[in-house]
Specification:
The protein is an alpha/beta fold and about 800 residues long. Helix content is about 70%, strand content about 10%. The protein is built from 15 helices and 14 strands. A 6-stranded antiparallel β-sheet has the order 2-1-4-5-6-7. The protein has a 6-stranded mixed β-sheet with strand order 8-11-12-3-13-14, with helices on both faces. Strand 13 and strand 14 form a beta hairpin. The longest helix is centred in the C-terminal third of the chain and has 99 residues. The radius of gyration is 63 Å and the shape is flat.
Length: about 800
């Protein structure tokens, strides 16, 4: 596995930092404290494994100066097995690409973490234990007790995988032993199950025969039930017809009785009608009543015409008075509007003059500003060219040729050229700033002038609108005055006409209202009496006709009663015979219900016995399969037992080789770190290290020697882990590996790092020690920029 590029965006201290790692050799990432060196490792770890392995919450990864809605993002380009990949992780999602086609392999935080684990063939813990060698890990290893140290080393070297495999084999062996023990006696169980199967089969056959017998009995009852039901249906039909005819006979009798009760009332009405015919001859004749009615009608009509004429006269007078008032109001409104129009000061040419002034001022301003902006752009172009020249000369340095004139530049010429260019740059910048000030002044003056002209134009528009509104109102009210004059003439004409009509009506005969009411009451009494008598005479004819109809209806009902009585007698319905048929059907129904219950019970028993037979059959088949697979289970148990024994032997063999291998690697590393002063290292059973100097083991080591010994052990663990990973994991990150070592011992560490580059293709050293740059093939230098509050790469 190789890392190609690490790109941090808005991540902790980094706003936008891109680090390239060469394919081979030692790469040094250097810088002062809090410049974001270790953050690069954290970004790599986060990109591969996600938020579960970050310090603090994922939301705290974001650089505090990030723009709104811009979250933390880390992109890592890497290769595995000759294939290129890119992982891109943000705060809420992640993507894994196959390069160079940028084909998406996985998307989402968890899917990407799982896909990266599968690609590199290591879990997150295995990856950081192999690839990352941090100062905190070294210090923690030196301070561990015996138990913790053994557990840590076993965990780093993946011994727990062997322990887990051995645990699973033992569990499998115990399970198979328990299963074989449970299978003992399966053949005897099979014989017992087969005997039980035969017994249940016999019971099922007996239950089937019982179900068949009850079914035949139920069929016989159903046939008898069908015949009895037909007889009952006939009797029920007769009963229904008998009840219907009996009900109709009772209704006919009640109707006939009701008709008889109406005969006396009709005879009384006929007698009263005959008395009214005799009295009608003595009442007021029709001719006299009509003459009185016509005279009263004429009187009422004349009185109504008089009232209408009086009302018309009143309305005409009121209309004339209203028209006079309306005319006076309209004339007054016309005088007011004429005064208002005379007071308005309005110049019809003023708006056109102001529009022309506004256009001219805007055009002159655009021309002036356009010319100034052209000069400003020329100054800015000259400024950029001058800056590029200065930068090119600085990069070329003293003694090089001038990029512009190609002359050699010694120390004095170099300073003169830079000073000349800087002077020219200041002049250009000052001229540009002056032109921008002129643009600002022109904008301000034009803004004020346009504001004044637009205010004057607004006043002119208001005066024009006021003049137009008053003129329109004046024309309207002048028209209203003419309309009011015409209405006044029309009202006067209608009043004259009403006076003439009133004079004509006053000559007619119009009785007083009291006399008219008395005459009307007398006429109404005569009319009411005659109407009463006439209505009684009319009722006489109606009662006579109704009496004839009732007599006919009474005769018809008598015929209907006789016919219904004859039909009832012909039906031949017998209540006792009906009850016997109903009782017979009820008895057969009860026997049928009992037979159905018995059949249901027999079927339930038959079904339960069939289910029992199925269960016994399944058990027999299962036992037969168990008996047939017993030999295969025994063979598999022997295989698992042999595998468990071999895994136990392998575990012992691996455990016995860990310490010698680690001792050998630590001895080589420690000798290199101490200039050969300590020639060997031995490990106790708890992996505590003992260094030897000139064949002797000193009782105590200095602080620096202890740090070197812990570093040697941690490097040995990384190398052993890389060899056991099964993947070409040729990558190593060393984070602050020097600790508190002095200069000479730091050089030993650097020399060892150079030697490790022969084992690990890529070695990345993160340190604040300046000497690290001398031992590296490629250097990335970081610094913190306080102006933006973020770290950045200053040299690479």
């Amino acid at each position: 596995m190789n890392i190609r590029r690490i790109h941090l965006q808005n991540f902790r201290l980094h706003a936008d930092t891109e680090v390239f790692v060469p394919a081979k050799g030692v790469t040094a990432i250097v810088g002062g404290n809090e410049t974001g060196k270790t953050t690069i490792l954290e970004g790599l770890e986060w990109a591969f494994s996600g938020g579960d392995h970050t310090r603090g919450k994922v939301a705290n990864l974001r650089w505090f100066g990030a723009p709104p809605r811009s979250g933390a993002k880390v992109t890592v380009d890497f290769s595995v097995g000759g294939k290129e990949y890119r992982v891109e992780r943000l705060e809420s999602t992640a993507r894994l690409f196959a390069m160079p086609a940028e084909t998406v392999i996985a998307q989402g935080t968890t899917p990407v973490s799982e896909a990266v684990t599968e690609l590199i063939g290591m879990t997150h813990r295995e990856f950081i234990s192999t690839v990352f060698c941090r100062q905190k890990d070294v210090e923690a290893l030196s301070r561990m007790g015996a138990t913790d140290r053994v557990a840590f080393i076993r965990q780093v070297l993946q011994m727990e995988k062997i322990d887990e495999a051995l645990k699973n084999l033992r569990k499998r062996k115990n399970e198979m032993a328990a299963r074989l023990e449970g299978m003992t006696g399966s053949e005897d169980d099979l014989k017992r199950a087969e005997a039980e199967q035969r017994e249940v089969t016999a019971r099922v056959e007996a239950s089937g025969a019982a179900v068949h017998a009850v079914g035949k009995e139920l069929q016989s009852l159903s046939e008898h039930m069908s015949d009895a039901t037909k007889v009952l249906a006939e009797e029920r039909q007769k009963k229904g017809t008998f009840r219907d005819l009996t009900h109709r006979l009772e209704m006919a009798k009640r109707v006939r009785e009701g008709i008889r009760s109406q005969f006396a009332d009709l005879e009384q009405q006929i007698a009263a009608g005959k008395e009214a015919e005799a009295a009608l001859e003595d009442a007021a004749p029709e001719g006299l009543i009509e003459e009185l009615r016509d005279y009263l009608h004429e009187c009422r009509r004349n009185r109504q015409r008089l009232q209408q004429a009086l009302d018309a006269m009143s309305r005409a007078s009121a209309a004339r008075n209203g028209a006079v008032l309306n005319l006076k109001e309209h004339e007054s409104r016309v005088e007011e509007l004429q005064c208002a129009l005379d007071a308005v000061e309005y110049d019809p040419d003023l708006l056109a003059k102001l529009d022309a002034q506004i256009q001219e001022m805007s055009r002159a301003h655009s021309e002036t500003v356009g010319a100034l902006r052209g000069e400003i752009e020329a100054h800015r172009t000259d400024e950029r060219k001058t800056l590029r020249k200065i930068e090119a000369i600085k990069q070329a340095g003293e003694g090089a040729c001038c990029p512009t004139c190609l002359r050699g530049m010694d120390g004095e010429v170099f300073d003169q050229v830079l000073e000349s260019l800087n002077d020219h740059l200041r002049v250009v910048v000052k001229d540009a700033e002056h032109k921008e000030e002129l643009v600002r002044q022109s904008n301000e003056m034009t803004r004020r002038g346009l504001a004044e002209l637009r205010a004057a134009r607004s006043d002119a528009e208001q005066a024009r609108d006021a003049h137009k509104s008053v003129s329109s109102d004046l024309i309207h009210w002048r028209r209203e005055v003419k309309v009011a004059e015409a209405r006044l003439e029309e009202a006067a004409s209608r009043r004259n006409e009403a006076r003439a009509d009133l004079a004509k009506i006053e000559k007619l005969d119009v009785p007083e209202a009291e006399e008219l009411r008395s005459m009307e009451q007398e006429l109404d009494a005569k009319v009411a009496e005659r109407v009463r008598l006439e209505s009684r005479v009319e009722a006489l004819a109606v009662a006579s006709a109704r009496l004839e109809r009732l007599q006919a209806d009474h005769d018809a009902r008598t015929v209907e009663v006789e016919a219904l009585t004859s039909k009832i007698a012909s039906i031949g319905f017998d209540e006792e015979r009906y009850l016997q048929a109903e009782e017979s059907v009820g008895g057969l129904q009860e026997k049928t219900n009992q037979a159905e219950v018995a059949l249901s019970a027999r079927r339930a028993t038959y079904g339960a016995q069939k289910d029992e037979l199925s269960r016994v059959t399944v058990r027999v088949e299962s036992l037969r399969e168990v008996v047939s697979s017993l030999e295969a289970q025994k063979a598999e148990y022997r295989t698992v037992t042999k595998a468990t024994e071999m895994m136990e032997g392998f575990r012992v063999a691996v455990t016995s080789t860990i310490r010698p291998e680690m001792e050998e690697l630590m001895s080589g590393f420690y000798a290199a770190l101490t200039d050969g002063r300590h020639e060997a290292v031995e490990l106790n059973e708890d992996f505590s290290a003992q260094a030897f100097e000139a064949g002797h083991a000193p009782d105590t080591l200095s602080g620096g020697a202890s740090d070197q010994l812990a570093l040697a052990q941690r490097l040995a663990l990384s190398l052993m882990m890389a060899q056991r990973s099964g993947n070409p994991m040729n990558l190593l990150f060393l984070d602050e590996p020097f600790g508190s070592l002095e200069e000479s011992r730091r050089m030993n560490v650097l020399n060892l790092i150079r030697d490790l580059s022969g084992v690990f293709t890529q070695v990345v050293v993160i340190s604040h020690v300046a000497e690290t740059k001398d031992a590296a093939d490629y250097v990335v230098e970081l610094e913190h920029d306080p102006s933006i509050g973020a770290s950045r790469v200053v040299a690479a």
